[in-house]
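so i finally got all the pieces together for this one. its three components total, 990 residues if u count the protein bits. some of the lines might not be protein, just check the labels. i wanna see the whole assembly predicted at once instead of chain by chain like last time, that was a mess tbh
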Amino acid sequence: MFGKQMFPGGVHPHEGVGGKAANQGNAIREMPAPRRVIIPLSMHIGAPARPVVQKGDHVLMGQVIAEAGGFVSAPIHASVSGTVLEIGEAQMPNGAIVRAILIDNDFRDEWVELHPCGHPETLTPAEAQQVIREAGIVGMGGAAFPTAVKLTPAPGKVIEKLILNGAECEPYLTADHRLMLEKAVEIVDGLRLVMLAFGVKDAIIGIEDNKPDAIAAMRAAAKPVDGIRVQALPVRYPQGGEKQLIYALTRRVVPNGGLPLDVGCVVCNVGTMYAIDQAIREGRPLVQRVTTIGGLVQNPGNYLVRIGTPVRHLLDACGGLRAEAKMLVSGGPMMGQAFNNLETPVTKGTSGIIALGADSLDPDEGPCIRCGRCMRACPMKLLPVHMDHFIREFNYNEAERLGVMNCIECGACTYVCPAKRLLTQSFRMGKKVITARRKAAAELAKKEKEEAERERAAREAAEKKEG
Amino acid sequence: MAEARRNPGFGGVFMNGLITENPTFTLMLGMCPTLGVTTAAMNGVSMGLATTFVLVFSNLFISLLRNIIPDKVRIPAYIVIIASFVTMIDLIMQAFLPDLRAVLGTYIQLIVVNCIIFARAESFAAKNPPLLSLADGLGMGLGFTVSITLLSCIRELFGSGSIFGFSVMPEAYQPMAIMNMVPGGFITLGLMMVLVNFIKKALSARKEARA
Amino acid sequence: MQAKWTIAPAPHVRDNVTSRRIMIDVCLALAPAGIMSIVYFGAAAAGLIAISVLTCVLTEYLYQRLTGAKVTVGDWSAVVTGLLLAYNIPASAPWWIPVVGGVFAILIVKQLFGGIGSNFMNPALTARAVLFISWGSIMGAYPATQLMADTVSGATPLALLAEDASQVNLVDLLIGNCGGVLGETCKIALILGGVYLIVRGIIDWRVPACFIGMVFVCYLFMGGFDLALKEILAGGLMLGAFFMATDYATTPTSVLGRCIMGAGCGLLCFVIRAFANYPEGCSFAILFMNVATPLIDRFTMTKHFGEVKKHG
């Protein structure tokens, strides 16, 4: 066991009612479209999209309603056909209020004309990037980083290995599991097309070995394709963390502050790859995704959901919440965000909506007893016990020296802490302060430089005058 | 020095040494005799008084000579002055209090290098007029005496069951031997500093509340 | 669906291990040794253990009450301290010994330094050292067990070993039918408790392994296998190695640090036993390493995952 596809640290989070066991047998069903969708303009990392429709416009399904707001950004497409009600606001799971396009559904589901790619197997890298970009595809594991950007290596960097993340290490979530079972051929096809386009010879699909059926399905689908290997991984959170997955599958270590491309890897979620396949083969943009609805709901399930569907609609479709539910989480319970607005829409990154009970409410924090469990749980081999002490004493410099900026906020340390300390939260805060300080320091340096420059210019001018 | 500039006068300087800047609990000076001789109350008192004697006179004379002593050789000069008074008190004790002298032993001679005396010479007597320096020496010396007497009373009480040689504990009391050793001194000193800081904090909090 | 939903930072699932459960587990692990001490030393042992635990819990409660701090008696850590302290007291000690020790351990060593997790020395061991230095004749008197055929009081296995290893019966050592303080005699009970803690994942096996291994190896070179085996089973080594050198607050947090802690304790214990005046060096060895803990922690900080390796 030890040494076999293992990253340092990690935990085995337990699950409650409505977890993976209850949900992994539920086939993906199409969720009926809601009466109105709320499509946020910044549901990806990077610049918000710019709306290109106006109030009252009639839009078709798949029509671009907002264009990318920069290089690191993604366009947004209508997920229903209907009328633009307004360009208003939406509350995201993290509580932020962002601009959003509200569309009233006419329930006709009229698609725009789709343009499948004419020569899918001979795409150039630039063409592939363009297709992926125009389809609005972002990382669907939760981070929602624009995939086209990920697939644009910096000069001098080469994509050697494509890694497909099918680990789904978060408890409760089964969306990727079901997708791998039901759409294995499409996922492998998408992977093959990307490999052809970018000239990648080697691809690894990493799947935790608690999903033997998904491993078998993916192996069967990958068999006819050269260069694709399906690797079973031991169950351990956060197996699906980018750096952890790369290490487990390739033994390569992404340097601190670096990108997977620094070690020649690109990691994509299986859901993302399915979306890429759809975009290349059928010309379909990203307007719906598979989302797990689990935990304390009456009928947990995996649903194909239109982007922008309000959570209230999802819960109604699942028969509502159980009485014990106390908390709603967007994403998995380890890294997902608790929210309390039922109008929060499903976004491109929403891998699941989980209802949790009273046992998920935070117990009182106790004093640290220095047991060291957090250090052994940390997948980044950081020292949470010491970093936490420093941050709580506002000694950010020392916390930075201990590497708090490399914290991936996976929550493993908080999970194991017997004193129930909110370690991850403390690191989030510390990272925010340190980032702000770095920014302020950089601005100050810039200002000083400009000042010096101006002074020098003035002096030179004066000297010239005298001379 | 801030106090000198505010010109607190004889009494102010005296009280500063005795309480505000108590050499043992605030400045943490002279730890060697503090831990070494405070096993019995009598030792504490006599050590404190001997130190006070030296401190008063060394402060006075250094202050008197402060404008004559060249800056470059001031440290040897201070040592000569201090050593003279230490020798005096050592000889006096040998003549009149031979038993006590035997108990305190080399600690008396070590007053020469006691950092209280040196610190006061350097930071106060060398910059202030004779009368104020005298007050400072007296205050610091008595502050030191009171502190180490308190310390030695506690240690004697627990370590031997007596105070100033008089048995105060009941017959059945079994002396706590660690109090007669250096670790006992450290623990007692630490606890007393906890107490002093606690009281100081409480007082300043009350003062703030009143203000 | 009008209910208000709770907002909290991730993660939203927590392991069910709590500080309290860890402490209760330690108490459970200490129980066999306590029961054996009552078997061997009778009611006196039971009384001393009860007084010690009561004093510790009461001191903690009163201190926290008087200073207005949150009362944390419910975390059972004071009970652990009380048990460990009692296990370090000989059965013949008067009632006030555990009282003084308990107050010292909780008030001065633990609470004044900030309470659970903040003390820099093991409270029970520090109290034991203070008691031992202060009242050597009481703390150093080791009454014979009730089951011992000959009533040769006073001679502990360690003292006998120092003279001649063959005087000591290995079986007596294992079952604890020999002189010593309350909790240290029955090695089987202690090993049982230690293994329980290791299996439950509460203590790191490396500390006792390095500790005991170090003492064993040192004595192996000094006096051969028989002496080495009896030395590791004599005195407070097992108690110290399993229950005191593994105290969270006063031992390093890193894996390597814990190995260093164990090995350092073993070496010091050997040096004190073999070459110093004290017959038993275990507690002083552990205290010494307690003080070195911040230093060890500092020097055994691990590289981060992804920290760029420097090429020479």
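Chains B and A do not touch (no CB pair under 8 Å).
Chain B has a mean pLDDT of 87.
anyway lmk what u think
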